[in-house]
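Supplementary Methods. Inverse-folding protocol.

Structures were first reduced to a discrete structure-token string of length 197. This string, shown here, constituted the complete conditioning input.
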């Protein structure tokens, strides 16, 4: 059993524990259905020669996409404090969902900027480094996500039993995720260039 499998499994188990505790049945179901669907696609070899298939099984993608159900059912805006909060979910799970969304948003923005800047794909370093970060470094992605989750949870304002997340809190989480992604890409390029010097 590899370290990557252990870490991703623990990450998935932690999510399931928090989601069950918060009774987020739709979020759990959405995550599992998507994972099973991809497994069936892989089983039917609809992806042709794409390999390795394991990069399609990282749980953070499915958990993040399925968090749509959380935002629809449990995410609320409180005009008095100008904050967001979850009505029934555990505050850490709320921070988990927001941090995952901000991390993916930062990743997509960097991806779109590179695609716009180099529409013909003339990105011999940046684009491979970005895709490598998401597909081939699941431990790094998970550690960053848990860091962003803890960061957001700590800076959020506790009101009653829940923590309330201001727009500034969410923006800070997004910027932290963006900085980490950019640092990772630059470091990956630096290591690549060192091999040729």
């Amino acid at each position: 059993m590899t370290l990557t499998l252990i870490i991703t499994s623990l990450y998935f188990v932690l999510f399931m524990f928090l989601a069950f505790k918060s009774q987020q049945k739709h979020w759990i179901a959405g995550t599992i259905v998507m994972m099973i669907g991809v497994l069936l696609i892989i089983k039917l070899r609809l992806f042709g020669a794409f390999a390795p298939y394991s990069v399609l099984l990282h749980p953070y993608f499915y958990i993040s996409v399925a968090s749509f159900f959380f935002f629809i059912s449990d995410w609320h805006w409180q005009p008095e404090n100008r904050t967001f909060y979850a009505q029934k979910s555990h505050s850490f799970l709320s921070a988990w969902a927001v941090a995952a969304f901000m991390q993916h948003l930062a990743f997509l923005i960097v991806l779109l900027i590179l695609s716009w800047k180099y529409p013909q794909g003339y990105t011999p370093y940046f684009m491979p480094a970005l895709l490598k970060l998401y597909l081939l470094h699941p431990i790094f992605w998970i550690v960053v996500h848990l860091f962003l989750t803890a960061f957001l949870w700590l800076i959020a304002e506790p009101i009653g039993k829940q923590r309330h997340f201001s727009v500034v809190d969410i923006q800070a989480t997004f910027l932290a995720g963006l900085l980490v992604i950019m640092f990772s890409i630059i470091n990956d390029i630096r290591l690549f260039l060192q091999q040729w010097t």
